[in-house]
Write a structure and sequence with these properties.
The protein is α/β, with parallel strands linked by helices. About 30% of the residues lie in helices and about 25% in strands. It has 2 domains: about 55 residues, Urease, subunit C, domain 1; about 90 residues, no CATH class.
Length: about 160
């Protein structure tokens, strides 16, 4: 079914930003991209989904292994104690010493959900294929695996633009 995704700002690859833009999508293909009025006029039968913020192509996360297995993503029920941001370093080491498999799996799933909310569509490997928690969560996420990028200094960041 043809769907038009509209937002206050659309950032196409290799072209100028489109204010009050839209992208018409048919299955896995882009059928049209441009100002909302033009795209909806060209496809009057399409369903329309309005999004706040901006639409941009999917982004690549270069350090997924660190973010998923070297960080702890607190459960919302733990926010009063642990906060809402990923924990790594000494805080992660302290938690991981007593973490059971279910808590670790929840952290990995929440980490993937956070990546998706940041616009991530691709993960640059390598990921530990022998780790069943990681393998299962990533395979269910719909994210595409890519070859690894060059090494990056500093802590990993959920923001693909960082």
């Amino acid at each position: 079914m043809l769907t038009i995704h509209a937002a206050p700002l659309v950032l196409p690859v290799g072209a100028a930003a489109v204010v009050d833009g839209a992208v018409a999508v048919d299955g896995d293909r882009i059928a049209a991209l441009g100002p909302y009025e033009e795209v909806t006029a060209a496809h009057p039968a399409a369903r329309v989904r309005r999004w706040p913020g901006l639409l941009t192509p999917g982004l690549r996360q270069d350090r997924p292994a660190e973010l998923l297995t070297g960080c702890y993503h607190p459960d919302p029920r733990e926010s009063a104690e642990l906060g809402e941001l990923p924990l790594w370093g000494a805080e992660f080491e302290r938690l991981s010493a007593t973490m059971d498999a279910a808590r670790r799996a929840g952290s990995v799933r929440r980490g993937l959900q956070r990546m998706l909310r940041h616009g991530t569509t691709h993960l640059a490997g390598p990921l530990d294929a022998a780790d069943p928690v990681l393998r299962t969560a990533v395979s269910r996420s719909g994210l595409v695996l890519l070859p690894p990028p060059p090494a990056s200094p500093g802590p990993p960041d959920l923001d693909p633009f960082a």
